[in-house]
Amino acid sequence: MQRLPDTPIPTFLVETQASANSHLADEITALQKERSGRIALGLATGSSPIGLYAELVRRFEEDWIDLSFVQTFNLDEYRGLPAGHPASYRAFMSEHLFRKINLGPKNTHLPPTEAEDLDEACAAWEEAIRAAGGVDWQLLGVGRNGHVGFNEPGSPFDSRTRRVKLAESTREANARFFDSPDEVPTEAVTMGIGTILDAKRLRVLAFGETKAEILGRVLRGEDDPSIPLNALRRHPDAALYIDEAAASRLG
Ligand code: GLP
Fold it and tell me: How far, in Å, is the centroid of ligand 1 from the Cα of 36?
């Protein structure tokens, strides 16, 4: 793993996705041991985190780590999908992590999406994060347009958990998880950028050439406040882990 020089957010070029996954799993393992398991993890969905979740499951099965006291807070969830829909982020998390490490539903939190008073439910969700002592370690992916969670370009850096509309490019990128593109919801609830910046550590995974352009704009460009990923320049402990294909526009 090689630290790239002169990037506005610390960035590590990894030879394989597996090496990034094992590094991040090491961080979580160390944190869990230090705190006897009582940690709050911020989690993400999409293709990027799947390998890390598999690595955590392996460590759990081999008794390296005990995740039974972990509290998890996911970044985002679609609005308007029937409960249990296979493309919901709850279903994704259950398939890749929660049910494999025996995490009970009380330990796992996804943003509220269907409450009658959604603003109030979002405020309660933020309160639940605070009650857990804040997020100790937050995983992030990045959208092709630079979104983090479902904070699309133009989202204020001090935004909190709220209902958002999805960009068409995001709906197209995520259509692969649905039977047809029309099924992709138009709305979601996401942790705000301000909520994300409150986490003590931020770790971003970006793999593949579809991320190359946005990484070039963020890591070699001006501090453009319309690109959500640029918010991480303001965090004291953020780092990106990217592969060669994702790094191909860094010059
Ligand atoms: C979705 C999620 C984001 C995620 C992004 C990237 O839009 N809401 O949180 O970062 O996908 O996904 P992938 O890792 O599949 O490229």
Answer: 30
- The alpha carbon of 221 and the centre of ligand 1 are apart by a number of angstroms equal to 22
Are 170 and 143 in contact, with CB atoms under 8 Å apart? yes
Sheet order of strands, 162-165 included: 76-78, 187-190, 162-165
Q: Is the pTM here over 0.85, yes or no?
A: yes
> Residue 7 half-sphere exposure, CB side, CA atoms within 13 Å?
24
**Rounded CA separation 147/165 (Å):** 12
- Ligand 1: residue whose CA is nearest its atom 11: 46
Give pLDDT tens digits for 83-112: 889 999 999 999 999 999 988 889 999 999
pLDDT digits (tens, 9 = 90+) for 32-75: 999 887 899 999 999 999 999 999 999 999 988 888 889 999 99
d(CA 10, CA 152): 22
Residues designated as active site: 76, 145, 147, 152
